[in-house]
Amino acid sequence: MFFYPDNVTYITPDRLNLEYEDIYLDTPDGERLHGWWLPAANDNAPVKGTIYYLHGNAQNISSHLLNVAWLPAEGYNVFTIDYRGYGKSSGAPDLEGALHDVETGLRWLGAKNGVSDRPLYLLGQSLGGGLGIALASEWVKREEQPALNGVVLDSTFSGFRLIAREKLGSFWLTWPFQIPLSWTIPDDYEGIDRIPEISPTPVMIIHSARDGIIPYHHGVALYGAAKEPKTFLKTDTPHAATFVIPAYKGEVLEFLEKRSEK
């Protein structure tokens, strides 16, 4: 239902004239994760902050790179990882494992020189947003450091069990089994239940009115459940294609810059 990985390299940052570093991280349960560190690239201007990017459920970081390739030129470092079973990361994907993976990445990022003294943001798209809500809610609740300055959720479903039930119910062959099969998915990480716990960290929710993969009502539900401070951006693109539109990039940059004080 949630994970569709492959190990094909679609594009690397150097093909987009981006500096980058391959990062390998060991998880507490013995997996090895691959990620990319993309430093800010706005000449000699100060770095504005760091963005931890969690990608969607298909392929791997190389196919999602274009979603964040524009951020280094805007003054932001970007760090992104592949969950276990994706790309060059070891293992096989599952929900609990992916949650461990995204926390492993954030802990590495928090310990990296030059990150903790600048604003830190989480950007999750689709599946990455679902994982990001669970991660951010625990991070805030435990008062972990460095603190997050903002969380951006793009094209995200309101719950793992909720979207599974919806997808199973949309196909005649699985329709009779939508309830029993959805109960096999843990309900400990439903975004609609967890998103209030991200407060007082600001949240920006982005969702397209014509998203054919994660329907618009999921974004509306997440926004309704979130506590202030919160922002909603209604878009008009295919699923997770927000950043092909310059105006939408500008809205996200404005959100980041308003939350830039530590």
TrEMBL record:
GO molecular function: hydrolase activity
Pfam families tied to this protein: Hydrolase_4 (PF12146)
Every Serine aminopeptidase S33 domain range: 46-159
Keyword Repeat listed: no
UniProt keyword list: Hydrolase
Keyword Hydrolase: yes
Organism domain of life: Bacteria
InterPro entries tied to this protein: AB_hydrolase_fold (IPR029058), Hydrolase_4 (IPR022742)
Cited PANTHER family: ALPHA/BETA HYDROLASE DOMAIN-CONTAINING PROTEIN, PROTEIN ABHD13
Protein name: Hydrolase
